[in-house]
Amino acid sequence: MAQHYVIGVDVGTASVRAGVFDLAGKLRASAVEPIQIFRPQENFAEQSSEDIWEQTGKVVRRAVADAGVKAEDVIGISYDATCSLVALDRDNQPITISPTGSRAQNIVMWMDHRAIGIADEINAQGHDVLKYVGGKISPEMEPPKLKWIKQNLPDTWRNVGKFFDLADFMVYQSSGVDVRSLCTVVCKWGYLGHEGEFGRWDRSFYEQIGLADLFDGGKVTDDVRPMGTFAGNLTPATARHLGLHEGVAVGVGIIDAHAGGVGVLGAVWEGEDGTPLEKLETALALIGGTSSCHMAVSREPRFIPGVWGPYFGAMLPGMWLTEGGQSATGGLIDYVISDNAQAAALQAQAQQSGCSVYEILNDIVQHHTPRWTKDLHVLDYHHGNRSPKADPHAKGVVDGLTLDTSLESVAKRYYATIQACAYGTRDIIEAMNAAGYRIERIFATGGGTKNPVWLQEHADITGCAIVLAQEAEAVMLGSAILAAVAAGAFPNIPAAMKAMSHAGAVIQPNPAHAEYHQAKFEIYREMYEEQLRRRARMARF
């Protein structure tokens, strides 16, 4: 009997990756290719759907070849992607969303903050839909971006054929079926997933914000289905592009962070009979990358000011999702590494030694205790605060700088920044627990989990054990789980999660540092309150 395989494709901020998995969740091979990012102005970040699709073909073909599996043994494929906005014209060709006018630049990226003022205007109108996004819509969500396009690029708005979240574009490109994921539209478009069989659009919200015509001409569809639902089979053109066959099932996709949640949380049920949903309410999925997302699910809706959600059915069927997040974590750490007098020397040392810059800095850090940072405090709001303040206008703060430009001083700032990211995670967890969660364990995946300093500081500062996934590529695994469900290999997502997602190493918190981190955490919170006071004083200018 032939072994069956599924493919998960992860479209991240800077790369597209594909992984071939067996039905036990083992990664047989993966491939990665970089994707372009265009930054025409400050706070603008754009991509090209043609570039992403071209790289997708490369990584799928290479992963299948490297896995040594037969194309006919692949039964399903699904996609996760950043929550970026894709625009196509009426002929399904890219149409510009850029002030440059370039048609190739047809994606407004998740981290694009061009619409920050429009988000403020939408929030001031106070529509009831906003209570399902933590009380405030973010400029990283789609309605503010859409309104920016309508106001600033009228030709694009007039000639656009379809707007997609990126994961939905990938499914459309693969199957030719215009279906939207319950995950993408609930989390990023204000769709009400808890009303009716698969939810509904509250068109009064779009009327209120001046986008009633969004639903004209098929720009956005009413065909919304849960993640992992069978969308269709590969089109002949896509089968050729991916090096697969037309019988491959395409599963409705998911946002990348949410795929990570699907990929890691199956380990919650290891050793359990069945898949008891209450076990999930003590677990947090932390997906770290350029930004970080903090995913918790519950059987009842929990309304937490400043924390996205509650979103019904947006990650696991029948469960409400609460989504915390930090807009810059891995991206902030990389910024700190590059923004100093030692940056070039550090890169040269890494190349000469065959180590990464993180390993060099970690080697310095390990000679110190956490108390090394007692006079250096960082507020990690350099790209605003997503949760729990929901303040995109917030800024980063560093208190304790000196004239020291040594590598030792760079390592200290790097260490303090990692701690700040962990204090931000603790802030989110405390907001969740105050609203009824009882987070005991963090199930983590993403770039940060490759860094032992990042892991230990997050465990020590949150007081939670951190459970790593046995399969390090848990985001791709989450998409592969959806592909397996779409192909009929499992009856539902929880069953596939339990079969394919398994726990790996566990990092325990060190209680010896609890008092120190409590003091630092209080300072972390005070820094934001002080910033608010300064902003208020300067608001009249």
Blueprint of the fold:
Blueprint: E1 5-11, E2 15-22, E3 27-34, E4 46-47, H1 49-67, E5 74-81, E6 85-89, E7 107-108, H2 116-125, H3 142-152, H4 154-159, E8 160-165, H5 166-175, E9 180-181, H6 182-188, H7 203-208, E10 224-225, E11 230-233, H8 236-242, E12 249-255, H9 256-265, E13 283-288, E14 292-298, E15 308-312, E16 320-326, H10 330-338, H11 343-353, H12 357-365, E17 377-379, E18 397-399, H13 407-434, E19 441-446, H14 452-462, E20 465-469, H15 474-486, H16 493-500, E21 503-507, H17 514-538
Helix pairs in contact: 2-3, 9-15, 9-16, 10-13, 12-13, 13-14, 15-16
Arithmetic mean pLDDT? 96
CATH level 1 class label of the domain at 330-428 and 512-538:
Mainly Alpha
- Give Rg in angstroms: 22 Å
Percentage of residues in DSSP E strands: 15-25%
* Category from helices, strands and their pairing: alpha+beta
C-alpha geometry: globular
Q: Please give the order of strands in the largest beta sheet.
A: 15-16-14-13-19-20-21
Which sheet architecture does the biggest sheet show?
A: 7 strands, mixed
What is the total tally of β strands? 21
Q: What is the CATH T-level topology of the domain at 330-428 and 512-538?
A: Methane Monooxygenase Hydroxylase, Chain G, domain 1
How many helix segments?
17
Please tell me about this protein's structure.
The model has no long low-confidence stretch (mean pLDDT 96). The strands form 5 sheets. A 7-stranded mixed β-sheet has the order 15-16-14-13-19-20-21, with helices on both faces. A 6-stranded mixed β-sheet has the order 3-2-1-5-12-11. The radius of gyration is 22 Å and the shape is globular. 53% of the residues are buried. Helices cover 37% and strands 20% of the residues.
